[in-house]
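Ticket #4471: complex job returned nothing on first submit. Input attached below:
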Amino acid sequence: MELLANLTMGFQVALTPQNLLFCLAGATVGTAVGVLPGIGPVTTIAMLIPLTFHMPAVGSLIMLAGIYYGANHAGATTSIMLNMPGEPSAVVVCLDGYPMAKKGRAGAALAMSAIASFAAGCVAFLIVASLAPALSHLALLFGPAEYFATIVMALVMTSILTDDGLLTTLGLCMIGLLLGAIGTDLTTGDSRYSFGFTALSDGIDFVAVAVGLYALTEIIEYSSTDTVRQNILFSFRGLIPSRDELRSSISPIIRGTGIGSLLGIFPGTGPMLSSFIAYAMEKRIARDPQRFGKGAIEGVVGPESAANAAAITHFIPMLTLGIPAGAAMAIMLGALQIQGIAPGPTVMTNHPALFWGVIASMWIGNLMLLVLNLPLIGVWVRLLGMPFQVLYPPIIAFSCLGVYSIHNASFDIYIAAACGVLGIVLRIMGCNPAPLILAIILEPMLEQNFRRSLILSNGDPLVFLTNPASLGILVFTVVVLVYFKARRRHVIKAVEEPA
Amino acid sequence: MLQIVNARRFWQGALFLGIGAVALWQLPLPIGRLTNMGPGYFPMLLGMGLLILGASSVLLSLGRGERSHVERLSLTPTFFIIGGVIAFALLIEPAGLALALLVMVLGTCHARLRQHPIQVAVIYVAVLGLCWFVFIYLTQLPLKLFW
Amino acid sequence: MLKKTIALAVSALALLSLAPASAQAPYPSQTVRIIVPFTPGGGTDLTARIVADALSKSMGQSFIIENRPGAASQLGIDFVARAKPDGYTLLWSSADGISVLPAVKPKMPYTIPDSLAFVSSFSSFPLILGVSSALPIKDFKEFVAYAKANPGKLKYSSSGAGGGGHLQPAYMAKVLGLDMAHVPFDSAAPAVVAVAGGHASFTNVAPSTVAPYVTAGTVRAIATSGRNRTILYPDLPTVAELGHPELTEDFFYGMYAPANTPKEIVAKLRAGVEAVLKDPATPDRLRSLGLEPLDLGGEDFKAFVVKDLNRWTEIAKAINFKLSAD
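Support reply: We reran it on our side without changes. The output follows.
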């Protein structure tokens, strides 16, 4: 079998002591970066580029890839522990991961998310290894109309994420979209809603918003309650997922992996979108959607497996076609080019050792991450056991410096502070900020693809319905929404009329 | 008599109306056409959408019956924590990390009283050390430790 | 905490290896920041990192890259223009914010050439005209014929409004009398993907960006804007060879300092960049990125930029192109 022979060659490359070391370095740095707020994988990979000039091409790509999926892997840690998403893909993990931690199941949530990530990583690895060449052409399939439809689907589905009702979530989405519209208009170069601040011309960064809406809000809320917060008790039993939690995680992991593997192939969508579509799906098909938002394990493992699967299949367009699926990939492509390797379909035939070596290293890297993360859980949970008033000054300090590091400018810290106030206002009104933050991130993609679609269709707004793929996605969205609403009413009725 | 029954819904509606109004009032120009949208086109759609949603929310919050209330939070911690963060942002470039952090730690620790001064001092030194190591030594942010 | 410590130690080692021990020298006696006005990973950032790495070694002081993106590179350039002219804040920029944007944007916070001291150019590159292979267009002649036969049908994607990738085809449309619409993207990569997928008709991007798609056969390269043919595609005709020398345009990367930076420092930096260009390893690295070395210093570089700026100003006037004001 050709695949086996290729994989054997790949593992021979990836298992050399030197490459193992690069893989370990990538995974560890990725984990650190994923846990620290502010410093993202993109910045880290860019900083390490000059180092790769003096490294072999395979080794450098193995290391940089490790940082990328390692950061994705670890992004959920702070979501679960502090209700603070480290990466965009971890926003939805907050919804159920943090309630689990509050119930004293932080250890179990962390362990299950690590296991889910690993399981998804294994499947996605197999998909990349066996189907990469066949799947690569899907990446070109999506044009502006299809992207627009996908993002609309994602935004409408946020109403499933929380229990706040359609009116509230749509409103929050629109506020998020408006906040996302702040900055330079891509088409004309005009600045929008900048209120005279040049620094706003680059728009609002996810990290600043996440720090404000999550970290600062959480800390303010803690400080305003008179009771001393119940410290999460540390117990060894809390570290191990119960048999029940394991059993109910299996199907969500499989579904999440499927969604993530598929969406990861399309450039631009990737981990974040698939993580919250996976969450919405889990909640949609759960027998009892009421449990979601209160610490349902399915709401942690589903999105986590989706995000990690997508992070791995995200490499398909890059390795097979030379299409960077995101900013981090674009930098890795640059690193390859500096090494004299022309990215594209020829990589597989001209540099098979590189191609298969990197793929094999992804599985090894995922195994390393599992081994690395499981013992860390004890450390994290013990840290949570510290009094919160000792924990929060370092959290604020790290968050502020992380925010500062985005543009090396104080202005982003002011944005974080403003978002902290907004977070408190939303908290008082009882709204969950998840739809808002997702909309902020998706706004540029939504608007630009909307505008591009209409330029390309010469102004025909029916383009989204005449294009078969986008029509399919929109119809699917409506069906899911109607079905979910009907079902929820049904469930609520069932709960209200117990025998 | 009609009155606000669902206070949460009412205030949400008010927020949507307010933001929608600001969005339309400060609308970036020109709006453009469907084939050649200007910077104002998309925000205009969003602003109008928010006005509609906000108005519906406010109307739905009215009714007869007992009035529900929104959660109340004490304002002091908000003031000290947001204040601490803003002070940090103001000081970090001119005064360096050490001083900016000092002001921030004092401010944020003040938000939660009953903290022993020695505990605050220990927290300050630990945070300063960690931040220096991670952000100045490792990631080489262009920051000074002292002024 | 142990694992976290290891993680930090690993990245510490990685970073330390980039910053060799400092030697006693008059300039530079402390860390030098090079501002890159774009996000990490683009051509500007990559070339900056190549040079910063080499300068750190040759000058015995670390040169670090600081990305300050925003407003089509205007923010970062403005930051350097206002910085203290002591040689410790430098700019590494592409042509976009230096000679293209000032030509099309009515209100700019800095002026070229007065706000900057010109240290050295580094490399140049042409834009490749790449057409979707879904279209029945094999060469430039067919391209023009097709565009004339189907007015309004061709849509070109660009790496951003007001940049070279936008103005170049807009000018071409004017010169050739073609009717085409502009579809802006936020960087060059997605602009080419849209063409490769057949969603847009053609685009003008740097050789290294279009290369994978040309190899895959999804994009057809039909012309280069360069003065000379590009090393990546020696068979590809230049626009001048195709009868349109007025469309010839080479874009460039280079280093700048704030105006009034001491002449000795500028000269020392210029010597440093020149040494990088003379390094036998450099041409290969550049070539793999589709870049050609461009070795101009001081006044020569300044004259080159001013000429380019004047050309874009004339073009903007000719096609009545303006980005609306803030």
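Residues 75-138 of chain B form one domain. Closing as resolved unless it happens again.
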